[in-house]
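note to self: dont lose this again. the chain is below, predicted strucutre after it. 146 aa total, dont forget to put it in the shared folder this time
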Amino acid sequence: MLYVITGPPGAGKSAWIRAHAKPSDIVIDLDLMALAMAGPGADHHAHTPELLRVVHRARQAALYEAEKVLDTVDVYVIHTMPQAKARARYKRLGARIVVVDPGEAIVRQRVRDMRQPAMEAVVTRWYAQHRKGGSRPVTRQASREW
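---
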């Protein structure tokens, strides 16, 4: 089964996967991939454009390969704001879409506390997109210490 985990930055997408995925499952997480490909001491969420270009291509390759094993292993993909082409691909693959959203106030506080200021704009875009008839939250989790 393919699980696509979506939600605004700081919502808890990675935590949701840690709570649900098994060690034998495949997890495709852009931030973890970038961290693995970045030099020592790189920030967990601030990536250069060059690194992101490489990581996005690696994620596409990982998704392509993961499609081939969906009948034998669960695959979890973090995709904050999938565009129409990606949503169509996920639908074709029979993905379960999981929206992790503890609420805008909690997300904005987490982003202020733990992320770069540029992530505020991503949060704004995510909520604007979802207010226009997008997905409803699947999880409502209270804020917790990170």
